[in-house]
Design a protein that fits this description.
Blueprint: H1 8-13, E1 21-24, E2 28-32, E3 40-46, H2 61-77, E4 88-91, E5 107-111
Antiparallel strand pairs: 1-2, 2-3, 3-5, 4-5
The structure holds guanosine-5'-monophosphate (5GP) and zinc ion.
């Protein structure tokens, strides 16, 4: 059994579980968090199953670079206010002590006017 058979984010990226999609290309998928903390709160994931940031290595440099370059573009498109008065937060929870609940690499992108629910 492959990881994607029991990984909720693999299923979301494959369209097998519905989500509110923000962006998709060959390698990446972005969708709104089901429990948003902030007025704008979406997740960017690679389509390939990587459990967390703890498993990335040199072969993932381009993929991670693409995720980080996509974040500000989608943040503005989703309604975050421009830097520096606006901006956004990027977060990659990693492992149990890092607060990671879903073990498929993802970055949270959060923004919009405060106060936020958390953080
Ligand atoms: P983590 O704590 O692993 O960094 O965060 C996982 C995030 O995924 C949480 O903010 C949670 O609300 C979100 N999430 C979990 N399951 C689903 C789902 O089925 N659909 C969507 N859209 N978000 C989910
Ligand atoms: Zn996965």
């Amino acid at each position: 059994m492959s990881p994607s058979d029991h990984c909720i984010f693999c299923k979301i990226a494959a369209g097998a579980i519905p989500s509110c999609k923000v962006y998709e290309d060959d390698e990446l998928f972005a969708f709104h968090d089901i429990k948003p903390w902030a007025p704008v709160h979406f997740l960017i994931i690679p389509k390939v199953h990587i459990p967390s940031l703890a498993q990335v290595g040199p072969k993932h440099e381009a993929l991670l670079g693409r995720m980080m370059v996509l974040a500000p573009q989608l943040a503005l498109a989703q309604g975050c206010n421009p830097y520096p008065e606006g901006g956004f937060r990027v977060m990659a929870n990693t492992g149990a002590e890092g607060g990671q609940d879903v073990h498929h690499l993802h970055i949270h992108v959060m923004g919009g006017p405060r106060p936020w629910l958390k953080g």
